[in-house]
């Protein structure tokens, strides 16, 4: 019996039994929807989601344009019901090893407002898009080598996810609530996976998404799964620590020079204690604004300091997409925030191939995307610009999760300036967990791959030479890291 077949029901039988009711419901939906304006045609998809509830065969992806190889895994793409009128697009890929026994892993990209399909097609997915935007190639270091991976486009308004009312103003708690509802919908569709170990991963602003959702999964009571832990990659965990540490990161990477560093110390520090985050002195604010403009607006690749900026210096823009504007307490909020941004595309990142492929008509059809939805983009300004941050820090959330015995991993590529390693290291060290190992290196392919330290059931880990998107820029080490975390073995 395969992963997606129930006892006594082969796949053709399931489809035969459901075909008549699906066609009847869709016919009725078409008649009803014709009475309304074009955008209300989205109700067709809403009806479809309810009709196939509990049956996942209609979502199966049987053929993908541009795929010249035969996959040794199964995949589904469709919609999960969240709160009233909200539907989140998912893409689920089974493990290449042992789907029935391997863990289920939820992957969430950040923003807020960026699509997790970027994580699939650029980072840790089973395949990636060639530069021509037409063909696919296998990812040798795909995370579905050892896990069943669920990619969720969240919140509504991101990627191919949508809301019937097309209103996309939201906040941290509402996103966590909707992701929780979407998970309930997912495990209703795929009940065979409820006993597999389950983990939640978040990247960038996923540093807020992952722990807040994890707390709901661990304590909500409505989702009966084998939840084991969560991980955050180059995530925002504390706005204060991220800003504070960035000044040190920038200086010790040679970005500021002696004069600016002296000015920062003279104006922001007193008795050896520095406040670069919310210092009330205008002279300090001016110095910090200058420093942040060097980091974010001078033409450096903020996501990977030692990599070139795709498109050159002139294409670099303020950080509005993969993470929220961290400088909201500073004049830099005006200086940087008013810089024009490239619509839907993070600065220094070339996502043309992924965008072109996902917007092909035959690809949308294969992924079961309704024609009435707008084109896919990597990030949504509509979502990002209206987003309200509730959690300045998720320290209390972590403390609650660790007290429940859940495993946690905070990992950082050490060349990222968007969510730098030092801020996340400070964050983990300040959780009040006793260190259970010394700070030490870990090895990949007979080379030092980074450093890590264990604090009870949470680990802080760096990936040497990687930037914001660790699975993209250090694919081999990231897969080994994943294996160690999932199996709860030393790094």
UniProtKB/TrEMBL annotation:
InterPro entries: AB_hydrolase_fold, Peptidase_S10, Ser_caboxypep_his_AS, Ser_caboxypep_ser_AS. It comes from the Eukaryota. Signal peptide: none annotated. Coiled coil: none annotated. Transmembrane segments: none annotated. Residues 1-25 are annotated as: Disordered. The keyword Protein biosynthesis does not apply. PANTHER family: CARBOXYPEPTIDASE, SERINE PROTEASE FAMILY S10 SERINE CARBOXYPEPTIDASE. It holds the Pfam family Peptidase_S10. Belongs to the peptidase S10 family. GO terms for biological process: proteolysis. Its EC number is 3.4.16.-. Keywords: Carboxypeptidase, Hydrolase, Protease. SUPFAM superfamilies: alpha/beta-Hydrolases. This is Carboxypeptidase. The keyword Protease applies. One of its GO terms (molecular function) is serine-type carboxypeptidase activity.
